[in-house]
Amino acid sequence: MHGYEKMNLAKIEQVGFDCMASRQDSREREPGWLFYHGRRVARIALWLARELAIDIDQEVIFTGALFHDIGKGAEPHNEIGAAMTRESLKGLCTPGELDAISEIIVSHNQRGCSPHFSAVIRIVQDADVLDHVGSIGPWLAFYWSGTHNETFDDHIRFIQGEENATTQKRMRSGLNFEMSRRIFDERIEYEKRFFSEFKRVYLEGI
Fold first, then answer.
1. 17/19 Cα distance (integer angstroms)
2. How far apart are CA 112 and CA 109, in angstroms?
3. Measured distance CA(199)–CA(206) in Å, rounded
4. Structural contact between residues 88 and 127, judged by C-beta atoms closer than 8 angstroms
């Protein structure tokens, strides 16, 4: 540890904010998505680890999750993101910590290989998926529709259509833990209720 201080998550989160809070990786995501999504994923990952009673290095998993999408906007974003994170956090983490953080970032989207990954990586993979559904789901959907000039009918047709249902099934099938699947199902049910009520109010007003 000589030459390195204990990981300071406040400093690390500030670095993440400085790197990602004003960036827009694509027109389908708002400026700042990379940072706030990463921070939510980090908090979901810590919660999942506690609920699953899995012993983890909290600082490492939080940091890996926070920075997991920093490379978005270029591909392969997982490998590019790992290199960017190593550079951004130089001096704030030990070489061993950076190796572990980089492994999370490189592996976060490699779900086909999940059985071979550590519990830490599989937790971050699940947290990443979970942040795309539930209360966040309508925001993602509306923002996408707004940037693509969709009508209300276009939007609802997709949300309630087979393509979206297939995507959700694929997302669910990639989850690693039964608890994650249960949370996913609860969040999808919330989305269904939300969009059903949204459709009714949009068309009827009351």
1. 5
2. 9
3. 11
4. no
Q: Write down how long the chain is.
A: 206
Q: Which residues pair with 93 in a beta bridge?
A: 90
Residue 90, helix vs strand vs coil: strand
- The reported pTM is 0.94
CA distance 31 to 25: 8
Question: How many Å apart are CA 34 and CA 30, to the nearest integer?
Answer: 9
| pLDDT for the residue 206 | 84
Task: Measure the CA–CA gap between 133 and 167, rounded to whole angstroms.
Answer: 11
* Contact by Cβ (8 Å): 132, 171: yes
pLDDT averaged over 10-residue windows placed end to end, the chain, 206 residues: 71 97 94 98 97 94 98 96 97 96 96 82 97 97 95 95 96 96 98 96 93
Give bridge partners of residue 68 from the DSSP assignment: none
